[in-house]
Design a protein that fits this description.
The protein is mainly α. Helix content is 80%, strand content 0%. The chain is elongated. The relative contact order is 0.17. The model has no long low-confidence stretch (mean pLDDT 95). It binds hydroxy diiron-OXO moiety (OFO). Hydroxy diiron-OXO moiety (OFO) binds next to helix 1, helix 2, helix 3 and helix 4.
Amino acid sequence: MIRKAVEKAIVNQIKNEEHSSRLYLAMASWCQVKGYPGAAEFLYRQTDEERMHMLKFVHYLNDRGGHSILLELDNPTADYKSLSDLFEKVMKHEEFITSEINKLYEVSLKEKDYTTGSFLQWFINEQIEEETTVHGILDKMKLAGNDAGGLFHIDKELSALAAAKAAAGTAAV
Ligand code: OFO
C-alpha cells in the first residue's frame, strides 16, 4: 500500500498535469485565432501529451493501491501580448512543473518509496527535454524580434516540429 504522503503528492501532480493540458489547450486556441497555425498545431499536440502525463500518474497511483482523485483547477490565462509572451509563459510553466516533479521525488525518497522514485525518472528526463525545446524556440523568437517574416518562419518550424514529434510518437515539448 502506498504511503499517504506519497499519495497526496501524486494527487497534486495529477492536478498539475491536468492544468498543463488545459493551459496548452487555451494557448493553442489563442494561436489558432491569432493566425499562428504552426504554433497552434504544436500546442494542440502538447495538450494531448500533458493529458497522457496525467493518465500515467492516475494509473500508477491506482495500481499501487492508492486512489487518484481530481482536484479543482484554476482557469488558464486566455490572452497573451504576443507569440513570444505566450512561449515565455510556456517556459515558466515547464520550470514550475520541473520543480513540482523534484518535490514529488523528494517526498518519495523521504518515505523510502523507491518504486515511486524509479517511476519518476521518466518524468525527470522528460522535463529536461521539454525545457530544452522551449529554450530553443525562445532563442529563435528573440532573434526574430517583431519581424513578421521571422515569426512566419518560426510558425512554420513549429508545425514541422509537431509533425516530426508526432511521427516519432514523442512529446511536442
Ligand atoms: Fe510538460 O510535462 Fe507534463 O506537465
